[in-house]
Amino acid sequence: MGTIAIPDPTPVVVGSSHLAGLLVVPPDAKGLVIFAHGSGSGRFSPRNNHVARKLQELGFATLLPDLLKLEEETDRRNVFDIPLLARRLREVTEWAENSPATVGLPIAYFGASTGAGAALLAAGFSDSSISAVVSRGGRPDLAMAALPSVKAPTLLLVGSRDTQVIELNRTALAELRCKKKLTIIPGASHLFEEPGTLDLVVDEAADWFSMHLGPPELKVRLPFADRREAGRMLGQALARFKDQKPLVLALPRGGVPVAYEAAKSIGADLDVLLVRKLGAPGHEELGIGAIVDGDKPQVILNPQLVRMLSLPPGYIQREAEQQYVELERRRREYLGSREPRSVDGRTVIIVDDGIATGGTVRAALEAIRKRKPAKLVLAVPVAPEDSLRELEPECDEVVCLATPDPFYAVGSQYVDFTQTTDAEVKQLLDEARGTERPVETT
């Protein structure tokens, strides 16, 4: 990618309150990030300008406004008047929605300290159109009553040394009903003055904004025609990962046709991740865990089920050995003598044709996380909302095209849900690797 030419900040006067601001709009901006500063800081805040500059280099427009006028700042009560700051932020947002330089851009908030409380209060208004919120060292507790009304996906960033604010953010996280995430920045204090910590903030914020300020969501109409169609649509939703040269890992067998089309769409490498459910005694469909293939196959258990079922001595080992036999067969069938691709340091996208309860997918995510990918993404065409919510902590991001309610079964979301065969899996893997299987002769 070439370097984006960043224009100099343009001084602007915003809204009916005539608030001063600094606006930067790079060419082909992906969206606009409006900053809500902490107590006593404004458009010249060095930390926020550092974050803004990095976001501009990544293609985001930024607007750093003073939410208070000079004469208002002398009264310290205004600095902590969250409703006042939220109203001003709304005023700035309305200006941006109608300004020729930024009209049509999706808008996000980046709030610092008390500014995060104002950003969340503004985002919680019933008519808010904000696409995302990031809080840096924020005080979301100052907008506690509004948190359940926030619809914009919200990322809370807190320094590991900012212990009191960590607890405030954990309390606030429980009140949020939107897509949400709390990330602790190692070694950082409240102001993120330690070397490198502010750049970690930029990385996290940029990922969050890229995720939620991208192209409009795909219009998905269920049922999908078949797995291949679902894979092509999933590839569109994964387009922003293309530059990361990701590795797509399919869960056989049904996940392979989906993953093949998605990987082809974004130019990714494709491989399979072999996982076998460990069934409960007499109830094989009830998964007490799974065995995940690799250099050293891993047994991942559901500790709650294991405790509840009081399994016979040696049962888990016997079940794992039995399922490992099938893993070995599939490895030989699908890969032959080829070695699985390494995930170390790569963006890894795990793909299946859908999720019901998510037990097998959870085991896959947990096993791959231990192999140290740079980023771990779960991507599926369809799943129930509650299953996705439970899986979100296991990976860096979840991409799902549809979450129908009520959710009956994965197969009911497809017109053609014919079982994928071993032969189809082999064919698609070979095509993805650019090889052809030799023609058998008699």
Describe the structure.
The protein has 442 residues and is α/β, with parallel strands linked by helices. It folds into two domains: 10-212, 3-Layer(aba) Sandwich (Rossmann fold); 227-432, Rossmann fold (3-Layer(aba) Sandwich), CATH 3.40.50.2020. 35% of the residues lie in helices and 21% in strands. The chain has helices at residues 46-57, 70-73, 76-79, 82-98, 114-123, 163-175, 197-212, 227-237, 255-266, 303-309, 315-335, 359-369, 385-391, 422-432, and strands at residues 10-14, 19-24, 32-36, 61-65, 107-112, 132-136, 154-159, 180-185, 247-250, 269-272, 275-280, 283-292, 298-301, 347-351, 375-382, 397-402. The strands form three sheets. Strands 1-2-4-3-5-6-7-8 form an eight-stranded mixed sheet, sandwiched between helices. The protein has a five-stranded parallel sheet with strand order 10-9-14-15-16, sandwiched between helices. Strand 7, helix 6 and strand 8 (180-185) form a beta-alpha-beta unit. Helix 4 (82-98) crosses helix 5 and helix 8 packs parallel to helix 9 (255-266). The longest helix is centred in the C-terminal third of the chain and has 21 residues, at 315-335. The N and C termini lie far apart (52 Å).
